[in-house]
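Case study.
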Amino acid sequence: SQQGEEDPQALSIQEGENATMNCSYKTSINNLQWYRQNSGRGLVHLILIRSNEREKHSGRLRVTLDTSKKSSSLLITASRAADTASYFCATDPTSGTYKYIFGTGTRLKVLA
Amino acid sequence: DTGVSQNPRHKITKRGQNVTFRCDPISEHNRLYWYRQTLGQGPEFLTYFQNEAQLEKSRLLSDRFSAERPKGSFSTLEIQRTEQGDSAMYLCASGGGAVYGYTFGSGTRLTVV
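After joint prediction, the assembly is written out as follows.
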């Protein structure tokens, strides 16, 4: 079972535009992470935001977290063709489990 | 340090055969995860090790699945009597703690024919 749901499932934009993807989850969390996955490859960790943080930046990435709505967003600014990938959120539930629960992913395509 | 290494990268096997995958985590990481990912889906948790101790297993890990991490170093995932439904990408991840996120290997893609 997957706790997270990303929205939209697929997104196609022009190079230079911003891309926003959202993640909703179901239970209380310690932190939330975003990962990128290029086709057929492993996942690359992008950014981690703790439950007591509301916003975090890393280069062209901006992540927000709203624990009252159980949602997070990932913004990629000034997108590049190399940003084409699937993006997943992963939550660390507080319910005494060690597992990270991944969402279903957003497939981003950046057109040159 | 070359990151998390998984072998083999690809495995094609006949239904009913046993397969074993290996994961070599980053040497100083004491936490190790196995996940399974099918096409178009996010990774699904299979099992978690802290050092050599297997602390959590998913119900997805049926009796045909077993994982080990002897001496808290590399880990193996074995699937016995493979079924076509086992076809997936098997991902290993290691980390030193939740604060920094986890490093994933490139995965082993299993095809059961």
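Observations recorded in class. The interface with chain B takes residues 2, 4, 30-31, 33, 35, 40-45, 47-48, 88, 92, 97-105 of chain A (CB under 8 Å). Chain A has no helices and eleven strands. We will return to this complex in the next lecture.
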